[in-house]
Amino acid sequence: MELTGRNALVTGGSRGIGRAVCLELARQGANVAINYAGSAQAAEEVAQACRELGVEAFAIQANVADAAAVDAMVKEVITRLGRIDILVNNAGITKDRLALQMKEEEFDAVLDTNLKGAFLCMKAVYRPMMKQRYGRVVNLTSIVGLRGNPGQANYAASKAGLIGMSKSIAKELASRGVTVNLVAPGFIDTDMTAALPEAARTALLSSIPMARLGQPEDVARAVAFFASENAGYITGQVLCVDGGMAV
Ligand code: NAP
Q: Are 135 and 173 in contact (CB under 8 A)?
């Protein structure tokens, strides 16, 4: 199997895209640490499903926006698995509102989780990956970070920021055998998009050339590609998984 013997940490692995990523990495043979914020039971179920695929897996709670919690999480994962080969920064939130009405707290919360959270996780694995001269970091951005979207100034800023940050760290770590790439999903069928009003869903659907929502597994397969040996000469890239939406 492609990822046998590799160890992965997936943030926000309890639900949606993160859950599908955990299962895909496990299916390909990787051991998986499944981070979550509040959904302990869901994360434990993902861990159990991964173990049933024959790999080591466990759930681990940490708010990715909290530096001390992230450092403790990364330490514990390294203690339990030996090392981290793959980091998937998937944890993310939305707090949508027109910029005119957006509260400062809503802006900060989205930036803290989506952008600072990914920074803290990358910082925590930076030295260990550099020392082991191997690493695969995959960050979940969004086509909203490339194109903008009304009502999502905070979210678009966090996802566009993630692209610039990832490209910078990709350049810092390229000579050390560590790659940093991004997957940009379009409109994927998860709790995050289920919260959208029906009118917004209909409008979004009509903008997808493939005329269907993506499934979390569509995204997970792209993440697993960047996490694999096969992607060893690719870094700093954004791959859209969006049914043609951003074309
Ligand atoms: P989701 O179903 O809402 O799941 C979000 C995940 O993030 C959950 O596992 C949640 O954990 C975790 N999380 C949230 N805040 C956290 C924090 N502070 N610390 C640790 N974990 C936290 O989201 P999704 O739709 O799967 O999206 C996953 C990623 O893809 C996000 O980065 C999102 O921006 C991106 N994306 C999604 C779409 C889409 O259409 N769905 C499109 C483009 C990009 P709990 O379960 O414990 O709350």
A: yes
Compute the distance from residue 83 Cα to the ligand 1 centre, in Å.
Answer: 24
How far does the centroid of ligand 1 lie from the alpha carbon of residue 209, in Å? Answer: 25
Name residues whose C-beta falls within 8 Å of residue 184's C-beta, 6 or more positions apart in sequence.
141, 142, 143, 145, 146, 159, 238, 239, 240, 241, 242, 246
Q: What are phi and psi of 14, to 5 degrees?
A: -80, -25
| C-alpha dihedral, 40 to 62 to 66 to 160, nearest 10° | -80
155 noted as active-site residue: yes
Q: What is the pTM of this model?
A: 0.98
Q: Residues in the chain with pLDDT < 50?
A: none
What residue ranges line ligand 1, CB within 6 angstroms? Answer: 11-12, 14-18, 35-39, 42, 63-65, 90-93, 113, 117, 140, 142, 185, 187-188, 190-193
Task: Tell me how far CA of residue 185 lies from CA of 48, 90, 141, 176, 246, in angstroms.
Answer: 26, 11, 7, 28, 10
Query: Choosing from 36, 126, 134, 155, which is the catalytic residue?
Result: 155
Q: Could you give the CA distance from residue 207 to residue 244 in angstroms, rounded to a whole number?
A: 9
For the stretch 94-105, pLDDT in tens is: 999 999 999 999
Tell me the two tokens of residue 181: 């790439």
Whole-angstrom CA distances from 55 to 14, 136, 157 are 17, 19, 37
The Cα angle at residue 153 between residues 202 and 146, in degrees rounded to 5: 75
